[in-house]
Amino acid sequence: MSEVTHRFVETNGIRMHIAEQGTGPLVLLCHGFPESWYSWRHQLPALAAAGYHAVAPDMRGYGQTDRPEETERYTQLHLVADMVGLLGALGAETAVIVGHDWGAPVAWNAALMRPDRFRAVIALSVPYAPRGGTPPTRAMKRAAGETFVYMLYFQTLGVAEAELERDVRATLRRVLYGISGDAPPVPVLAKGAKFLDALAEPSALPGWLSEADLDFYTGEFARTGFRGGLSWYRNLDRTWELMAAYQGARITRPALFIAGDRDMVVLRNRAAMERLPETVADLRKLVLLPGCGHWTQQERPAEVNAEILAFLGTLDEARR
C-alpha cells in the first residue's frame, strides 16, 4: 500500500498543505481545533487500503497552510470554498466530505451549499444545527448568565492567544486530555475564568495519545500560534449574517454522525443531535461510542474507521 505523501495546492486564493494516501473515489478529511491533518493519521491508511483517495488538509489558518491575517477571511463561506477549490485542484468532480469538531460545520455546510460537489457527509462530534434566528454570540451571552463560555472568551483578539501560547506543550496536553473520554467531566466555571482553568492536567498521557503525537502538535502550534484557529470562532456572527438565505435549511445528502457519549460538545448540544433525523433528511446512522470523549477518530480509530468504511460501502454499492 502507498504511504502518506505531502504536497501543496492552490485553492480559493490560499496555498494549502495536504496529506494524502491511496487512489480511488475522493474522501476529504477536515480537522478541528486545535488540530491538523495529523488528527486523521489513523484514517488515511484505512481509507487507502479500502480503495479510496484520502486527503487530509491543514485547514485555513493551521499547520503549513496559509494563515490570512484578516479575521474576516475565516467565515464558513471561505472554508467551504476552500474545500470546493481543493476538489478542483485535485481534478475531482465530487467527494465525500468528513469533518470533526470545527471541521464538522465545514462538512455539513459543504453538503448544504454544494450538494452537486459533495455526494455525502460524515460528521464527528458536532451535530448539524440549522441557522437560528439570533446571532450566536448574543444567544450564548443570554444562556450563559454568570458562567464562563469559552467561545465568548475566544472572541477578543489576543486574549486567548496569550493564554494558549504561554506554554504550547502544556496547553495541548491539557486540551487533548481534558476533553477526552479519559478525563473527569469539565466543570462549569464562573465568568472571568480562563480557558485552561476547566481542563485537568493529566498525570500521564492516555493510551491513544503518545509523546510523539504531542510532539507533532506542539511543533506545529509553537510555529504558527493559535490565532488562525481562533479566527474561526471570531466569525460566528459574521457567518450567521452571511448565511441568512439558509435559515432553517436541511441537509439532503446521505449522512453519518459519529460521536462519543462522554464528549462535552455532544452533551452541551444534545438537542441538536436528537433533532438530526429532522434536520438531516437522509441520516443513515447515528453512532454514539461508549466512553469516548471529544477526540473521536483519535480515541477510537478502529470503531470510527469501521463505521466510515461501512457507510462509504453503501454509497458505492448504490452507484454500481
Primary descriptors:
about 325 residues, alpha/beta, Rossmann fold, 8-stranded mixed beta sheet, 15 helices, globular
Characterise the protein shown here.
- The protein has one domain: 3-Layer(aba) Sandwich (Rossmann fold), CATH 3.40.50.1820.
- A hairpin with a 2-residue loop joins β1 and β2.
- It has 15 helices and 8 strands.
- The two termini are 25 Å apart.
- An 8-stranded mixed beta sheet has the order 1-2-4-3-5-6-7-8, sandwiched between helices.
- The protein is globular, with a radius of gyration of 18 Å.
- With 320 residues, the protein is α/β, with parallel strands linked by helices.
- It is 40% helix and 16% strand.
